[in-house]
Design goal:
Blueprint: E1 24-26, E2 30-31, E3 38-45, E4 56-62, E5 70-76, E6 84-91, E7 97-103
C-alpha cells in the first residue's frame, strides 16, 4: 500500500476588512482540491465600540469549480469592544473550494 504525505501550507483567504451594520463581506474562493482537508481560522475583531449583536462568520464550500456554494458552518463572535475572536472550522477532505462570508446584523 502506497503512503501519501500531506504538505501543509498556511494561506490567507481574506485580509482584514470592515463591515458596517447590515453589511456582508465575502472572501475570494480558495482552491483546496489537492489537500486532505484542514482548519480554517476566522478572526473577527470588534472596534472600540462593541456591537449589540455579534458578527457572524459563515464558511462556505463548493464540491465543484466554485459554481455551487453550500454553507458548511456558522459561528458568531462576542460583543466585547476592542476584542479579537478566533473561530476555528474544520474543512473536510472532499471540499474543492472554500470561502468565508462575514456579516453584521442590521441592528448593531
Amino acid at each position: 500500500m502506497a503512503t501519501t504525505t500531506a504538505t501543509k501550507t498556511g494561506a490567507t483567504i481574506q485580509s482584514s476588512t470592515s463591515n458596517s451594520a447590515g453589511g456582508t463581506t465575502t472572501s475570494s474562493a480558495r482552491d483546496v482540491s489537492t489537500t486532505f482537508g484542514g482548519i480554517l481560522t476566522a478572526r473577527i475583531t470588534n472596534g472600540g465600540t462593541g456591537p449589540a449583536t455579534p458578527c457572524e462568520c459563515r464558511v462556505q464550500v463548493s464540491h465543484d469549480s466554485g459554481t455551487t456554494w453550500l454553507e458548511l458552518a456558522r459561528a458568531g463572535a462576542g460583543i466585547t469592544s476592542s476584542t479579537a475572536y478566533d473561530l476555528p472550522f474544520e474543512i473536510p477532505a472532499g471540499v474543492m473550494r472554500v470561502r468565508r462570508a462575514s456579516s453584521w446584523p442590521a441592528k448593531r
